[in-house]
Amino acid sequence: MQTIAVRLNVMFYFIAVILGLAIGAIVTSFVYSAKAKKAKLTLSEAEVKAEKLLKEAETKEQEVMVRAKDKAIKIIEEARREEKQTQEELKKQQASLVERETAFGAKMLEIDEIKNKLEVKAVEMVEKEKQIDALKVEESKKLEEVAQLTEDQAVARLLTLAEEQHQDTLMNRVRKLEQMESDEIDRKAKNILGVAVQRLAASHVVETTTTNVELPSDEMKGRVIGREGRNIKTIELLTGCELIIDDTPNMLTISGFSPIRRQVAKRSLDKLIADGRIHPGRIEEAVEEAKKELALDIKKSGEDALFQVGVSMAGIDPKLVQILGRLKYRTSYGQNILQHSIEVAWIATTLGEELGANVSICKKGGLFHDIGKAVDHDLQGGHPELGVQILKKFGIAEEIWYQCIAHHEDKPKTLEGVIVKAADAISGARPGARKDSLEQYVKRLEELENLASGFEGIDKVYAIQAGREIRVFVNPKAMDDFAATNLAREIAAKIESELKYPGEIRVTLIRETRVVEYAR
């Protein structure tokens, strides 16, 4: 019974499974068929839409093609029109070129005809000139046969007859013309010189060998002298000038033959008095500052001289301007050389204008004719040769540097040289322009310094006290004290043997060693 029950349960199980499978198959079939129907419906709709879109695309394509064809037709028509216009323009240009070529050909034919006619006329002219020359020769031969004289003989004969008939008249006329010419030349020369001198009425002050310094009070004299005279000795040592302190109230005198040294001393004293601190260290600083200021003043003096005369500084070296400015502190027979050079430049310019010379050469030659005197204290040689060397060094033209020599020559080679020589004489010969005694004094002091400078080992030499004392500074490394003593004796002996002077000259030789260190 249990076996039958089990079998029945198994059968019911299989039946249930089969029924379930059958039901699932039915449901699945139903769902699939529903989806298939739905898919068919969707596909048909898509096909309809696709066909609609294809029709619309075809329609638009046809429209685009129609439009493109219309545009292509328009472009082709425009190109044809432009081509037609271009062809018409080319035809016009070709026609114009043909006309020009025709006209040019006709013009060339005319030119050829004119050329041929000119060539024929030239040949005819040559033939006529030959015929005229032949007629002249034939006529001259006939005249010579008739007169029995050649052409040159006839001219000489005519002049001889005229000279014989009017010899007295000619001689009187020549003498009269010569006298008139001499009087006229003399009158014109006096007139030109008068005009030149009148146009330059420059004032002149004769230079001296002393310079005065005003003091704020007599108490300042003691400060300038310093303890045991150390301040005044330092000033005299550094400047090469002598300081004279006398009974004149509020006044101190600087004595020295060199204007540059006196200026350095004066400027230094002015600085020291204004500062109030006077001691050897400050004196050295003041002297150095004064030298720098004086160098600037010298350069400015040279520039002012060029500006005053009217010479451009464009082509002149600044060093040459500096040398020119040094003439402000140089004298000749008491006459300031820079002022003298300016005067010579103006006088030479005026004379050059009147005589028709090169005014530029006269002006520059007159200004630089004594440039050698700016360095003749320091270099050997006369100032004309030194001036030539200086101007050559700075590239000045020969016509200008020749004036340095010309104004000392008896017969200058150029008209400008004669003019500069005359201008130099006019400037130097004016009343009060020069003073011989001062020049002789300065020359004696220069000789004294140059004589002492000739020994070896000497650093500086200063002549002071109007030439009654000479101070010699030697290099302490070049000699010892014994050699310095012997050198002082040799200098004194050489002065006695070579120079003529009244009284005696004191030789002071200084050998000083100075050591400077800095604490930092």
Description:
- Strands 1-3-2 form a 3-stranded antiparallel sheet, covered by helices on one side. It has a 3-stranded mixed sheet with strand order 6-7-8, with helices on one face.
- It has helices spanning 2-147, 151-165, 167-199, 219-225, 230-239, 259-275, 280-309, 318-326, 337-355, 359-368, 383-393, 398-406, 415-429, 436-453, 481-498, and strands at residues 210-214, 242-244, 251-255, 331-332, 335-336, 458-464, 469-474, 506-511.
- Helix 10 crosses helix 12.
- The longest helix is centred in the N-terminal third of the chain and has 146 residues, at 2-147.
- Strand 2 and strand 3 form a beta hairpin.
- The N and C termini lie far apart (138 Å).
- With 520 residues, the protein is mainly α.
- Among the domains are: 166-199; 204-309, 2-Layer Sandwich (Ribosomal Protein S8, Chain: A, domain 1), CATH 3.30.1370; 317-434, Hypothetical protein af1432; 441-511, K homology (KH) domain (GMP Synthetase, Chain A, domain 3, 2-Layer Sandwich).
